[in-house]
Every structure is written in C-alpha cells, then in structure tokens.
Amino acid sequence: MDISIVREKLENIKINSLGLYQGKIGFLICRNYLYELKDANEIVKSLCDIQQEIENIKDNSFSSGLLGICWGIAKLNESIKLDRKLIGFLSDFDDSIYKSITNYQTCDFSLETGLIGKGLYLYQRLKSRREINFYRILTLRECLVLIVLEIKNYLRKIFDDVYRSLSPQDGINILHSINYLYLLKELEVNPLLIENIIYDIKCFLIEYIRNNPSSTIQNNLLFHYIANLSQDEDMLKNYCFKSLGNIDYLELQKILLELLSFFKQPFWFMI
User: Fold this and answer.
1) pLDDT of 46-102, one tens digit each?
2) How far apart are CA 209 and CA 33, in angstroms?
C-alpha cells in the first residue's frame, strides 16, 4: 500500500473526539509520524487546542480516554517542550496511576483500561524524562516493578493449562504483555525477572498454537512482531500473515497507533 494513499485517507477523516485511536491526539501523532513534521510550533498549537478540552474527559480508556491521550502527549513530549499546564496535568495523572497501582486497585490487565495500559503510559513518561525530577522518576520506576510482578502472577494462572481454550482478551493480554516487557528491558527494571517471564511466554505461545491450530493468535500482527523482535524461528514458522489491504482507515489508524505504542521500528511493510 502506498503511504501517500494512507496520508490522503487520514487527512479526510472527520475528527470529533480527543482520543488516541480515532481522535485528535491520535491523528496528530499519525500525521507527525507520517510526515515527520519538523515544525514544533504546529504540534504545540494543536496540543494547546487539546489542552482546553482535556479536563472535561471522564473516560479513562487507552483507545478514547485519558490513558491514551496522556500517553500520546508524553509520546510527543519526546521531541517538543510542553506547556506548563500540560506538564502539571501529566504530573497529576502520574499520581492517580501511582495510587491505583500501589493500592492494588487494578484487577484488569488489558491495554484498554488495565495494567498494561497504565504501564505503557508510565514507560513513555520515563522514556521522555522531560520536566521529571529525580524523586518522580523513582516513584514511577517503583510502579513499573509492581506492574511486572502483577503481570507475572496473571500469566502464571494462564500458563497452568496450555490445553485450555484462551479467551480472546487473554490472548491479546498475553501478546501485549510480552511486547511491553521488551520495552521495559530498555529501562533495566528487574531485567532478570523480565527475561524469565518473556521466555515463559514464548514457550507457552509456541506450545499453545501447536495444540490449538485454529487459534487466532498466530494471525495477530502483534504475534508477528514478537516473532521478529525475538527472532524466534519456531514463532516465525507459526505465524500466518493476514493482509490488511481492504481495511477501514479508522481501523488502520487504530492499528498504527497500537503498534507505535509498543515499537520504534517502521511497520509499513505489514500493510
């Protein structure tokens, strides 16, 4: 697929929300990524418009709510300097995430509303490190350690039986978990434990697909990325490529942003 066609289609999408997958912040990131915008003033102006609306958002999801919007702002903060009000908003959001994790209020492990989504946001905050003091860095790293332990406990319950049928959400959570753990390796958060969990996930996925040939996991783009990321020959053999040629463009934006959330390398060859 020609990237120029993707650009044209994305430009013609009507944006009615602030959200990441189908809203203003996601559109801004996609435009910045596709066009490699060099003018920070354009991004700052767009963020100022978002800033005026963000305090009215009640939705906390990754796709359309605060979790994804704040992740998107932190992502853009890698290359631009944020307005003080936005910096303050992110700091307040950090605190709410910290309280929910340290008080063990999270029993949801999904990217959309749970632990993976919160962890991905915290990773992005630590990765940019702009306007974050030493004590906040320590606090956010503490949260990441707790997240890794929670992921380990969650996965252990699933891995007890490789022959049982995985729910669609469990399958997605597993794929999100391994990709998220690969990201955390950069920050050296409990690296030995992370390596062990990644190894266990890979062994489980390979065994599960062998025992469940009708599984949709191997058709998932994230599984393909896991296989490439780890250069695991067994995983690559178990991947079934699924063409995205006729996909809806709002769905395409969602896929691009989900992959961009986890990976730094280009993924256009997959389209």
Assistant:
1) 788 888 888 888 889 998 899 999 999 998 888 778 888 888 889 999 999 999 898
2) 34
User: In this predicted model, what pLDDT tens digit does every residue of 122-160 receive, in sequence order?
Assistant: 999 998 776 788 888 999 999 999 999 999 999 998 888
Is residue 222 a contact partner of residue 176, using CB atoms and an 8 Å limit? yes
Cβ contact 215:166 at 8 Å: yes
User: Cα(108)–Cα(153) distance, rounded to whole angstroms?
Assistant: 13
The pLDDT score that the predictor gives to residue 151 is 93
Quick one: what percent of the chain has pLDDT higher than 90? 21
**CA–CA separation, 228 and 216 (whole Å):** 18
- Are 30 and 256 in contact by the 8 Å Cβ rule? The answer is yes
| Backbone φ, ψ for residue 232 (5° rounding) | -90, 115
Hey, is 92 helix, strand or coil?
A: helix
Closest CA to 79 of 29, 21, 27: 29
Mean pLDDT rounded to a whole number for the chain: 78
> What dihedral angle (degrees, nearest 10) is formed by the CA atoms of 202, 193, 97, 168?
20
Phi, psi of 226 (to 5 degrees): -60, -45
DSSP characters over 174-208: HHHHHHHHHHHHHHTSSHHHHHHHHHHHHHHHHHH
